[in-house]
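Our preliminary data section would be incomplete without showing what the modeling component actually yields. Below, a chain of 467 amino acids is followed by its predicted structure, encoded as tokens that our downstream tools consume directly.
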Amino acid sequence: MTQPVEPAPPPEQESTPPAELRRVVTASLVGTALEWYDFFIYGTAAALVFNKLFFPDAEPAVGTLVSFATFGVAFLFRPVGGFFFGRLGDRIGRRSTLIITTLVMGIATGVIGLLPTYDQIGVWAPILLVLLRICQGLGAGAEFGGASTLLAEHAPAHRRGYYASYAQTGVQIGLVLGTVSFLLVGMLPDAQLESWGWRIPFLLSFAMIFVTIYVRLRVTESPVFRRMERSRTVVRTPILDTLKMYPRNFLVGIGAHICDTAIVYIFATFSVAYLTNELDQPRWVALTGVVLMGLVVIVVQPLYGALSDRIGRKPLNIFSVVFTALFAFPYFWLLNTEVTGLIWLSLIIAGGIGFAPMIAVQPAFYAELFGAGVRYTGFAASREIGAAISGFSPLIAAALLSQADGSPWLVALWIIFTAAVSLVAFVIAREARTMDIGAVHAYQQDPPDDSDGPAAPTTPTPLETTR
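Predicted structure:
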């Protein structure tokens, strides 16, 4: 009697050798550190000197508001960068696209350090500043999604959360490096800081470009993308396919990034202005607190990433936003004590317990929202739309502070509101840590529950056309 023929098993994801995986982790750390060093130093400069150098005709409070507005402009263009470079990443590869974004971000940041100020060229100074900030936004809009996608697709399935968390660790290294750079130049007398000292952190970006390009050229392309190229299943229209096949997950991706975007810039940027301008604290107190927060987050993020491989991404995400909401008022109570140790403690708790779990699992969480064929586009675009919505958080916080006559209670309510928005996204998201990361379109709307076991890859759909 003829035995039934078993269907051929789907192709397994290629295993990345340990040495290559270490190179991928290093490249992601260095790359995201550069990109977000560039992004964060602008925020610190906006809080400390840009209001005087580029908007000197405004009152101090108004100048700070305008300065934070230029900081937020980049967020409007991050979704554009996410769609444009995300499409490239799904068409020509993750690695090649990341090299392009490195050049865009690094060159724009370095040129900011060469800009003449308002006193030298008048209104052209803020115009050029905003144009370069837009370029920063375009590069940043694709950097994190690309680095996270590359890591997630190289990582072993059972340790995806751990390895992918290093992309976010690079972000925090960038935050620490950027803040330390301004902590050092901030020791200069005000006249020297405002004449040439502020330029040094920006000019360093030129040197960092070469380091990043070097390490990124040494890594191989994602095994998932290589397999799609061999099987001729690279998606031709990743933007349209993302919106058509994953509308629900795309909305989840937008909402999931509202809270962490808002709070990281409140903690790292707005708080510096609040402490120095409203509470008359020395610059070093505020900047050292941000550095300590960043160092603690760097240490705990791999731990949270590894924990997510055991219990899932969803529980950590929900814990993170709930704690952030509960700590919003205590955070400002501790700042308002004007006791240095308590100021630092508030930042450490807010970062290490509040937003660290959420951002640690974010690379794996977003990678698992979309199939491989549109992962870079879906990841980068949905996340950066969320960033655009809440990226003006320092500006909003400064306006709320002014509205409340210097009291931060409205800012605390803003933090709670953003946490509530992201909580909704995390609650409706499905746990997908066991999905097949290599499936071109593993699922459309509903990934399998974790209890169902690993997801079975699907066969290519008609949308998965060849190039």
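The domain at 18-451 is CATH 1.20.1250.20 (Growth Hormone; Chain: A;). The CA atoms of residues 234 and 286 lie 48 Å apart. Preliminary results of this kind motivate Aim 1 of the renewal.
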